[in-house]
Write a structure and sequence with these properties.
Layout lengths: L1 E5 L4 H4 L9 E5 L7 H4 L4 E5 L4 H12 L6 E4 L16 E3 L5 H11 L13 E3 L2 E4 L4 E4 L2 E2 L4 H11 L5 E3 H9 L8 H14 L6 E4 L3 E4 L1 H7 L2
């Protein structure tokens, strides 16, 4: 693949695993505006936010209107809460990502788009609609301003209404099996999600001693 990496340092330092893959990588400073004609020559654009997430966000926002070339942001785990849908990226990579993970995520970007393609069906449950293809979540028509992990957590919960998941299960499904943080992060993200759901915060219920469920009251009433 032909890759453009927006970074202020050697890509081998921001994403070491990439150096072991046979892709052609061209670099450009984060602050440099990328013309559409230039961006279109690449299969994907990597945006390095491993040192300065704010500058990465600025660079990403500048590309939203400029090009349709898929974009992947590189962010350290501590900066993930800053990633929101308006960044316009298709995926993210941690600086510690292995060559196998990098290769997989890049290959997924290559899926051709044609008139016969079908977009993933939106998840709809209890007034929440999750548009996965566009990373948009709404509750009763109101768009939610979610971080990447908040979106992923809501998407998973809304996709399994009525079920109850332990914190460990949610960590595995949303954060991945290689996540080494504690289950406290699940509680923090649930609290933030509830705040953003506002008057509909009760859609995410706590089952004491077990974990969390979504739309359990409605699910039980419908008898599904």
């Amino acid at each position: 693949m032909q890759l453009l990496c927006l970074t202020d340092r050697d890509p081998a330092d921001s994403l070491p695993g990439l150096d072991l893959l046979p892709h052609e990588v061209r670099t450009s400073p984060l602050s440099l505006r990328v013309p559409e004609t230039m961006a279109s020559r690449f299969d994907a654009i990597l945006i390095d936010g491993s040192l300065d997430p704010r500058r990465a966000r600025t660079a990403s926002l500048a590309l939203v209107e400029a090009t349709d070339t898929p974009r992947v942001v590189i962010l350290p785990e501590v900066a993930l809460p800053a990633l929101t849908l308006d960044w316009g990226v298709r995926d993210l990579l941690l600086p510690t990502a292995s060559p196998a993970e990098i290769e997989l995520r890049l290959r997924l970007l290559e899926r051709p788009v044609s008139d016969t393609d079908t977009t993933p069906p939106a998840v709809q449950s209890a007034g929440v609609v999750i548009d996965e293809s566009n990373f948009i979540a709404r509750v009763f028509g109101r768009t939610l301003d979610l971080t990447y992990k908040e979106f992923e957590l809501l998407h998973f919960l809304a996709g399994h209404p009525g079920r109850v998941f332990t914190r460990d299960q949610l960590l595995s499904e949303v954060w991945g099996t290689d996540y080494f943080g504690g289950t406290r992060t699940v509680d923090v993200h649930v609290r933030r999600l509830r705040a953003k759901l506002g008057e509909h915060e009760g859609l995410i219920s706590t089952v004491r001693g077990v974990g969390y469920g979504f739309a359990r009251a409605r699910y039980d009433e419908d008898g599904e």
